[in-house]
Fold this sequence. Notes:
- By secondary structure, the chain is of the alpha/beta class.
- The protein has helices at residues 15-23, 28-41, 86-99, 107-111, 114-127, 138-149, 164-173, 185-198, 221-230, 282-291, 293-296, 303-318, 321-339, 359-371, 403-411; strands at 53-55, 60-63, 71-73, 131-135, 155-159, 176-180, 204-209, 234-238, 262-266, 276-280, 351-357, 374-375, 377-379, 389-394.
- The protein has three domains: 6-45, no CATH class; 60-79 and 320-411, Aspartate Aminotransferase, domain 1; 86-318, Type I PLP-dependent aspartate aminotransferase-like (Major domain) (Aspartate Aminotransferase, domain 2, 3-Layer(aba) Sandwich), CATH 3.40.640.10.
- Helix 1 (15-23) runs antiparallel to helix 2 (28-41) and helix 3 packs antiparallel against helix 12 (303-318).
- The longest helix is centred in the last third of the chain and has 19 residues, at 321-339.
Amino acid sequence: xxxxxxxxxxxxxxxxxxxxxxxxxxxxxxxxxxxxxxxxxxxxxxxxxxxxxxxxxxxxxxxxxxxxxxxxxxxxxxxxxxxxxxxxxxxxxxxxxxxxxxxxxxxxxxxxxxxxxxxxxxxxxxxxxxxxxxxxxxxxxxxxxxxxxxxxxxxxxxxxxxxxxxxxxxxxxxxxxxxxxxxxxxxxxxxxxxxxxxxxxxxxxxxxxxxxxxxxxxxxxxxxxxxxxxxxxxxxxxxxxxxxxxxxxxxxxxxxxxxxxxxxxxxxxxxxxxxxxxxxxxxxxxxxxxxxxxxxxxxxxxxxxxxxxxxxxxxxxxxxxxxxxxxxxxxxxxxxxxxxxxxxxxxxxxxxxxxxxxxxxxxxxxxxxxxxxxxxxxxxxxxxxxxxxxxxxxxxxxxxxxxxxxxxxxxxxx
Length: 414
């Protein structure tokens, strides 16, 4: 990932580019050539390389590469440490033995299972919502959410830093997009006011997140909700990273805000499972059921994942102190990082971005931490704006004591 200046540099052709050039002949060239050229021009510090990991001891991961050493995991979103919790493993195993690994088809064909209905009902009661629908992934749920609330006649006002999946949904809906400054309600209000003055009856949709995954920041939810109600705009709130951790009882920052029209949540973070859901009123739920392509034309959530998510929800309700302890620990980490001379990570949740700026320096710090036995990934453009590369530090409930001291020692002087 590159800074603005690095983006002008040419990297060495990749192996993929060489293969494309070697096999591009005749009509193939018309579609292969642009791919090859784009890969050839991608700067080295913006290239991504997937790696495979396996669990290794307490809160650790180990690369599957030969000779690798275990690393303390400061990267994943398993905030409450539930992904390997015995209760979730047991629930998933029992569901697999009882119902199989996969659902086999769309929920509307043959994919519905008792576990799906039970999970939806439990989530609806927990969140105080009338209807919940399950999806196999958060990306898919966000796509469905936007398409339910927007069409080509809609003006969408979105926080500048919303997730890519939401932007894909806006593009697919055909709606017009305006992006307001990150968490700046004054900017949003000016745009809402102007939109209502220009076209009083226009359909308006506001999109934000309750905890931004690369920033660690949150909007002022009461004000955001009130603005949407005042101007008659629907509010879609992505709570993927907040649920289980933030808000009353871990119910998210949108809980109790009457202006929130639809909530998007995932099971792949604090719930320690996989899949996602949308939670709203009966009207939106029924519209999704009858009209949503992302819901209708996909295999239903795997029964073991639904069972694990249900077990996680029960655990969250029985042990709410896990979330409060995690937030207290996050505040201590912010204090110590700031005292050590690093920019204080914004926000109050378990995501602590350490702003570095330069892509190469962020990559160097990632490698430096790995050499010290710590895993924290350098986040670079286009995931974040150019010039704002960072290390994304993530706290989890199951991190062993002494983790902060190891991190500060490995980071060294800013």
